[in-house]
Amino acid sequence: MHVSAIIAAGGRGARLGGDRPKQFLSLGGRPVLQRSVDAFVLSDRIADVVVALPRGLVDQVPDYLRGCAKPVEVVEGGKRRQDSVANAFALVAGRADVVVIHDAARPLVSIDLIRRTVDAAVECGAAIAALPATDTVKRGDASRIIVDTLPRGEIFLAQTPQAFRVGVLHDALALASRSADATDEAALAEQAGYRVRLIDGDQRNLKITDADDLEVAERLIGAPARSHADVTTLRIGNGYDLHRLVAGRRLVLGGVIIPFEKGLDGHSDSDAVCHAVTDAILGGAAAGDIGRHFPDTDAAWKDADSLALLGRAARIVAETGFFVVNVDVVVIAERPKLEPYVDAMRANLARALGVEVDRVSVKGKTNEGVDSTGAGASIAAHAVALVSRS
Ligand code: MG
User: Fold this and answer.
1) How far is the CA of 30 from the centre of ligand 1 (A)?
2) 381 C-alpha to center of ligand 1: Å?
3) CB-CB neighbours of 112 under 10 Å
4) What is the pLDDT of residues 27-57, one digit of tens each?
5) Which of 57, 288, 317, 366 falls between 20 and 30 A from 172, CA-CA?
6) Which residues contact 166 (CB under 8 A, 6 or more apart)?
7) What is the set of domains in the chain, with CATH numbers?
8) What is the pLDDT at residue 224?
């Protein structure tokens, strides 16, 4: 099942003041668009992401859209929302089974909501996140006189994500090319005759349209008032690991297979660098440790690819509401010389963590011949990770 995500970021609205469209504004230190894209990159349901940027801005692609852990492509948005989505759909229509569309202006979408919406669309063809109305709903005329009071139990307020099997979205967008402005894709799917299921949305998944919304979103993520320091959202994590060097094993460090006469002994591939980083990011989020999530008593993790486990740990951290700011690792090995492999390790770790490579540092050290590591009987790794509340 190949699921592609389309992030609709084509709006040029700059109602929040300044000349930057709202999706490029910073929310708690990260741009609104980056938060939206990161949620989909981190979702295990999503294979790739296409971002529809405002016309005229595709040659100024922000750095955070490059070097993500999954393929992220950029297309030029159209005049109307449905035109932007159609441009992005043209890229994914040939490879996707299901397409999920999300407004860039909803940066607090949860990985859980993405999963539930996608799974419902897989099952029934089309599904959207929506909230039941809690206020009484009135219909008014042009002079603001109430015409009708609608039965509240039947009213739902649509959010995104909205997910569709590829054939459903194809038919919906075909209708869009001939019809008036649609404010969401579900409306087009309904007009095309499809049944669209309502999934329980999330109050946190608000749409940022004005300065008040931005303030509410900052409160929701626990970001301090902009006049205060950012420290209350930052946490540090520490990780350490050591494995014995033995004959007859491959040496794997930071996901790189290093030619050497010995390898690290253990249950998994015994990649001490990945293990130390995994514990560091889990520690920053106070989300347990590698032994709790991937116990070596469980046969599932025998000879496990520790880089893949690190990717899973990054998702656990994201689900607890944190994202990784940076990671710094010290690897202690008397031999072999690690310097030639450091950049490949950094690239692997960055990919698993879903961050740019310049946020990952790896340094090799020797132990000057002292103790077991210095005697060449083991390799050890220390890591620190800074995480921030997202
Ligand atoms: Mg280990």
Assistant:
1) 33
2) 9
3) 11
4) 887 899 999 999 999 888 999 999 999 888 8
5) 57
6) 93, 96, 97, 98, 99
7) 3-222 (3.90.550.10), 234-389 (3.30.1330.50)
8) 53
